Task: structure prediction
Amino acid sequence: MTTTDLVFQSYGRCCARDGFFEDFYRFFMASADEIRARFQDTDMAAQRHLLRNGIMQLILHARGMPDRKLRALGESHSRGKYNIPPQWYGLWLDALIITVKAHDPEYDAALGEAWREVLTPGIDLIRGAY
Ligand code: HEM
Result:
C-alpha cells in the first residue's frame, strides 16, 4: 500500500468517528488566541463540513488530482482575503496530527509522519498563494 493510501484509510477511520472535526478546531484554536479570534464569527458547523472536504482535497492532490480547488483555497486564505499568515499552517498541521492521534485506533508515529508527508505539498500550495 502506498503512503497516500495509508493516509486515505486513516482519514476514513477519522471521519467515521464522532467529534473528529470538533476536536480539530478545539486543538487548532487552542494553539493561539489570534487563531481563535479568526473564527469568532464563523458558523462552526458549516466550517467543520467544509474542512472535511478540504482535507480530502489535500489527499487527492497527493494522488495527482488537478489542483483547481486547492488554488481556490489558496486565494481565499491569501493576504487579500482571510489574510492567513504562512507560519500558521504549521500549527494547523500539528493540530490535525494530534487529532488523528486521538481518533485513529491504528495511529502510530510512522502514520503521523505519513500524514505530514502526504499533506505537505497541498498545504504548501495554499500557503504559497499568500
Ligand atoms: C491547509 C490548511 C487549510 C485548509 C485545508 C483549510 C480549509 C478551509 C476551507 C475548506 C474553508 C472554507 C472555504 C473557503 O472559505 O475558502 C476555510 C475557511 C477559512 N479558513 Fe481555512 N484552511 C486551512 C488553513 C487555515 C489556517 C491556517 C487558518 C488560520 C486561522 C484558516 C482560517 C480560515 C478562516 C478564517 C476561514 C473562513 C471562516 C469563515 O467563513 O468565517 N484556515 N478553510
